[in-house]
Amino acid sequence: MKIAIAINTSWNIYNFRKGLLQSFLDQGHEVVAIAPPDEYSPKLEAMGCSYVPLPMSASGMNPLTDGKLLVQFYQVLRRERPDVLLSYTIKPNIYGALACKALGIPIIANVSGLGTVFLWKGYVKKLAVSLYSFAFRHASWVFFQNNEDQAEFTRFVKLDERKTSLLPGSGVDTQHFAQEPLPTAEVPELVMIARLLVEKGVYDFIEAIRLLRKKGLHVRFHLVGALDESHARSIAGEELATWQKEGLIRYTAHLEDVRPVIAQASAVVLPSYREGTPRTLLEAGAMGRPLIATDVPGCRHVVQDGKNGFLCKPQNPADLAAKIKLFLALSHQEQTEMAHRSRKFIEENFDQQLVIRQYHRKVTDLTGRDI
């Protein structure tokens, strides 16, 4: 069987879907990865995938440019003729569904979070909703990553609910992200790992740090994530430099392996405005780290308030600072118990094998061929 996957970056395929693709390859199936070229494209080929470059912007929606993208999707899929397409992120979901309909190819779309377009108002959101409404009439199946996203999405986009279901995100490899004991450093470190976008709560994180510094708390803060100032909602590089000069944070750009950073941290923070199922929290929880995140869709499905971490009010630096202070007030034994609960919850609910099994069943259902 030939299985195609389309996402808006090769990095995303390799880092978030590698386990799923490897499961197909291990069964002798052919996998075609369709994505813009980046440094991870050769890694997809090295693991045994066929790679097809398809340039596309990860942000913004331009009907003229995206019309060309639709034609390119059609051409690639007509040439490759996969038995099924797995699509993720807004443009592959929309234009992949339209191309698959024209070619008679089953498509399993994954709405892995509503993205910034659903947080905004106005033209961009209306365009996205219109395109999704038209394209998803033809989707064979649609996976959502939490029930709140599913409800919000279907409030705008009419779907046949019999062709939708929930997944526990992308899942996490709980063997690769093995549990690590909490550090015992005299000065604890808390880390935030995210793209440096407004909606990830970067400004809230920084303001919470300022508030905690005024209270005299001795704690280090580490910010990890790629800076992409071409993105309309990116923070500015000058701001990032200022925060470092002020001694508010230690900054590390995007890391290929975040495990050493998580291992050094006493807890992981994510004050995001909305998520699908945040991979950062899954990885940190798998490694046995308490989690401090906003009480928003996605985050609250991973963080059990008071059990494996704390939830704070969204876009509220004062409440974020209060929850960080609450965590730091716990004894090391109490923090360790929270860490164990975090690992257990991820193992039981978000192991990537749960995701892989659901994909295998759905591919079999739609193609009539066993995985």
The structure class reads alpha/beta
Q: What name is given to the CATH topology of the largest domain?
A: Rossmann fold
Shape: globular
- The CATH class name of the largest domain reads Alpha Beta
- Work out the radius of gyration: 21 Å
Query: Reading side by side through the largest sheet, how are the strands ordered?
Result: 3-2-1-4-5-6-7
Strand tally is 13
Count of discrete domains: 2
Mean pLDDT: 93
> Could you say what the CATH architecture of the largest domain is?
3-Layer(aba) Sandwich
Distance between the termini: 8 Å
Helix content: 40-55%
- The CATH superfamily of the largest domain is known as Glycogen Phosphorylase B
Largest sheet: 7 strands, parallel
Count of helical regions = 15
Q: Which stretches are low in confidence, meaning pLDDT under 50 for 5 or more residues running? A: none
**Content of β-strand:** 15-25%
Q: N-to-C SSE series?
A: EHHEHEHEHEHHEHEEHEHEHEHEEHHH
